[in-house]
Model the fold of this input.
Amino acid sequence: MEFLLILTIICYMMSSAAYGAYLFLQKNYLQRSGYLFLSMGFIWHTAHIIYRIYDSGHMPVGNLPDTLSLAGWAIAGLFLIVFVKFQLKVLGTIAAPLVTLIMMFVSQLPGETSQATNLFKNFWLISHVIAIFIGEAGFALACGLGLFYLIQENAIKSKRRRFFFKRLPSLDLLDAAGYACIVVGFTMLTLGLITGFVYAKSVWGRFWSWDPKEVWSGITWLFYAALLHERLTVGWRGRRSAIMAIIGFGVILFTFLGVNFLLEGHHREFTKF
Done:
């Protein structure tokens, strides 16, 4: 229903405003308000997705608005979990506006309900989509933490301990939280690819077809696999890891949107207007 989407966007907007005010004023009640509004938005968002499932009769991935909505939902949900684990108050200043922008964009797109075909009615599709979007949410948060790391590191090295230096946590905490998000993202991406292979076999009769989306998903997996390997074996931490997290999210964006719009393939079915 439209009112569920409206309530979702309003809560996310209130969260963005509260986190924005918190960034400047550093009042804990503003951060708590931002977290509360984002939690409420996530609840309404979940209700909206459930309604879309009921309305369409399948997982809501049949057009671009639905897939973007799931992406925003995954980012919001994972942020709520990451905050409980690391208590990174400032991360909300990235997560809340990002989710808000996604959902405002979704509200402006035509979102006709897709026909309930066998293409969408598949257990493996549900598993694949949920795992992929949670994984990409992890990489999005890792990108934000990477940006914060570079900003804080620059403030320390230049000895210009001004606005952001007083508002960002330690480099060690930013690095640890970013690493945790990448581990979650990589784990879920791996599960998403596996379930995607099974889904492709059940629908198209083959595990791999060199579809552009499949190829770029494989490139993304290899990129983050290399990042984790180098961190564990060579000791890629701090600045290098932050930069790679930012570059990796760029690869994610191209895989998620660029491939569908610029290249032909099976997955264009999921991003139609």
Observations:
- The radius of gyration is 19 Å.
